[in-house]
Amino acid sequence: MKLSLAYLGPTGTNSETVALAYANWLSQNDQPEVVLSPYPTIALAAKAVANQEVDLAVVPVENSIEGSVAITLDTLWQLEQLKIIQSLVLPISHALLSCSLSWQEIKTVYSHPQALGQCQQWLEQFLPSVKLIPTNSTTEALQYLRDDLTAAAIASPRAAKLYNIPILADHINDYPDNCTRFWVLSLNPTTKGSYLSLAFSLPENAPGALVKPLQIFARQGINLSKIESRPTKRSLGEYIFFIDIERNICNASLQTVLSELSEYTEVLKIFGNYDLLTVQL
Amino acid sequence: MKLSLAYLGPTGTNSETVALAYANWLSQNDQPEVVLSPYPTIALAAKAVANQEVDLAVVPVENSIEGSVAITLDTLWQLEQLKIIQSLVLPISHALLSCSLSWQEIKTVYSHPQALGQCQQWLEQFLPSVKLIPTNSTTEALQYLRDDLTAAAIASPRAAKLYNIPILADHINDYPDNCTRFWVLSLNPTTKGSYLSLAFSLPENAPGALVKPLQIFARQGINLSKIESRPTKRSLGEYIFFIDIERNICNASLQTVLSELSEYTEVLKIFGNYDLLTVQL
């Protein structure tokens, strides 16, 4: 039996790099073979799992420079049957790709908005007058390069090799310690793993409404490795809080936290336990 | 003397609508006349104030559906000389603009990623097979419509009128209660206003590190109207917390909070006091 794995395509995206690394890791751990399936957006890749079109999806959650990927958090809140079964961290290196021979000729730079954001200071310093054009993925940006010698794209060195496009400048990230965290989503949760993600909305917007839930974690000595707010979409000023912690669901102090938490929250959703892998490039 | 006001252009953007409303409000309150100055990005509009190219800038902070505008928060943290002097809330209505006569012909939809996100369900229902192409602003999307009858753009009804492009469908937002909050930035803070924004980083990532600062607000009965985390950009898992509260800087309990807060935070930045205006369309 083969497992199908959805990711944000097309070939050459960072999501694909992570999907390949995950498939490789599964095969080394005597797990079933994986068939990769590209999707045009992150939301559609996640929904493919919910609709049982595929078994798994790999989706980006957070970049160390640009922050959370809002669509991933919103989709997880909406499709609560989706559970996280694995987290993967990918070190990110951006390069400037172009068919042009010199920087002076470049008038436009195409890339995913997160990649443009991660190279913003480099672009302001070395290509201050170029026009920045957002695309749906770093790979999609490459389609503009063949016919236009004044165009460049920000993508990975791997995409340069795959699409046979020269690299004009390498390591152009503004911050060297740039990585993106991904989640693998499935309908079948595990009870293994030392990380847990959950989210909740609050019953009222009153002084201390958020402090009470956070105090519950602090009392049990549980560190929040991440807290992020997203709008409830009902009205401006109402939020859903996404929290990552380091605890297994079978841990007694976590069970205490979860039962106390339900008293102080309106809706509480648990996205499951998982382990963290760092992708070696 | 005239005041210059930077905004995310070109003509027809929601930022311009807010800039015009703010200029109008100033003139009704016996304030100096305002000259509007469009900028290609939010970051450049904010930096124009820091560099003293302009007196003021209007920047989007948060949408009730899509959440915070990351670049605005990051820019404010970096350029701490910028202070918030006013907040404005704009009700948002999205329309589908096209030179095509029928929906069936539409193959691509251009718009700012936030606008595409705010109409995602509508697009999936009525135009499921179109290609979505992100642009730098809702107005920039309009440039593709004149020469391509298979293209549509999501923009405001005001932009449709300004650029004389037909509206194919109106009120296509997924959520009717859609509004965006803006800040007016200046180098000269006011001490008036009932709202205050601040941000801090934490000295250590330990259990309860975030709870301590939040407890200080709760003990003084101060409600947090918003909390948002952004990466410090140093390493994955380190955050800056942005907080909005309802208190004037001269309030004694707030002064207590701010002095206690500096004990539990690494860097603490106060972005100033301001009032909230709702823009009437």
UniProtKB/TrEMBL annotation, chains A, B:
Keyword Amino-acid biosynthesis: yes
Molecular function GO labels: prephenate dehydratase activity
Key word Amino-acid biosynthesis present: yes
Recorded superkingdom: Bacteria
Catalytic activity: prephenate + H(+) = 3-phenylpyruvate + CO2 + H2O
InterPro entries (UniProt xref): ACT-like_dom_sf (IPR045865), ACT_dom (IPR002912), Chor_mutase/pphenate_deHydtase (IPR008242), Preph_deHydtase (IPR001086), Preph_deHydtase_CS (IPR018528)
ACT domain boundaries: 198-275
Associated pathway: Amino-acid biosynthesis; L-phenylalanine biosynthesis; phenylpyruvate from prephenate: step 1/1
Annotated Gene Ontology cellular component terms: cytoplasm
Sorted UniProt keywords: Amino-acid biosynthesis, Aromatic amino acid biosynthesis, Lyase, Phenylalanine biosynthesis
An annotated GO BP: L-phenylalanine biosynthetic process
Site (Essential for prephenate dehydratase activity): T180
Domain Prephenate dehydratase: residue ranges: 4-187
Enzyme Commission no: 4.2.1.51
UniProt-recorded name of the protein: Prephenate dehydratase
Phylogenetic lineage: Bacteria, Bacillati, Cyanobacteriota, Cyanophyceae, Pleurocapsales
Gene name for this UniProt entry: pheA
